[in-house]
User: What shape does this take?
Amino acid sequence: MAYKVLVVDDSFFFRRRVKQILEQDPGLMVIGEATNGVEAIAQAKLLKPDVITMDIEMPVMDGITAVKKILAWRSVPIIMFSSLTSEGAQATLDALEAGASDFLPKRFEDIASNREEAVQLLQSRVKGLCEKRYGYRPVAGDNAPKAILFNKPSSPLAKSLRGGSEQGSTQVNVSNSINVPSGKHYQCLAIGTSTGGPVALQKILTQLPADFPYPIFVVQHMPGTFTRAFAERLNVASNITVKEAQHDEVIQNGVAYLAPGGRQMLVVGRPQGAIFHIYDEPLSSGIMYKPSVDITFDSLAKVYAGDVLGLILTGMGADGKVGSQSLKNRGAKIWAQDELSSVVYGMPQAVMSKGIAEREFSIEAFFGGIQNEMLPR
Assistant: This one.
């Protein structure tokens, strides 16, 4: 049985293009189209699609408003199409904040080296979210409120994540997920993620204390025009400094460095005084992702050896498996996000199924694990 897709865009030609691409896969069927947000809401309620593709800028009602209204009625994966501009980056991050699951550039040539790769990518992203939807076992029901992205530290949600006592806040009990700290020596924290990563990263980074004693290296699959805006949002929401990594920049403790989109990030040198090497790499080189978790994690293994705690969070594919194995071979610890809290369980599953990751955490429990392992009292 094919997954049902609703395509929302004010351009007839773009809707037709998306429909043609998706229906090349017999497992996908476009069951409806809409030209604006108002129509999208009506069609979503009438047709109950398994996934929705949504434009951001549309007449009558924009895509972000439509996302909020649809998700207030029913939980359904939504993929946003956006332009690769600074304005498009801000709007896309707003859409993810509103609850969208994923995003893709409207110009398919921006996401792959040829049309065939672009077609396969769009099909796989749509099917991946559908498969997650049918495999998901919600704790609080499909209508449970979604976590909001990029709350400032003083907001009720941010305080509840930190264990505050605001009335109505939800306390996360992680005692069953955390063991006695291993006593291992660390020099850095490394995080790799893709689909669903912006929400997951916010939940972890905004809980780290301002005096976190190690550098944090973050690889999130994102276009080049998006990562700076994403880093700036995380920086506003966090107690630590969050920034996009720069070539030849000296690495400092207590700073989270986001790999620049569309490029590769290496850490080189010695642990004290290590720097970044940021470089371009053509997709034809065989590397599927820019930035690549594998490439960054492998460089960390060479600099920090086993003194690394590596986290593999939600994401499609298996990027991070090879780099995590390099770290593990040198004695590092690798943890993975669990299936239930992942938007897509591909990357975490890749390290769990091969025995590379030794533990799984729900996204809500990760900070408790980090605090217990890296910040023992």
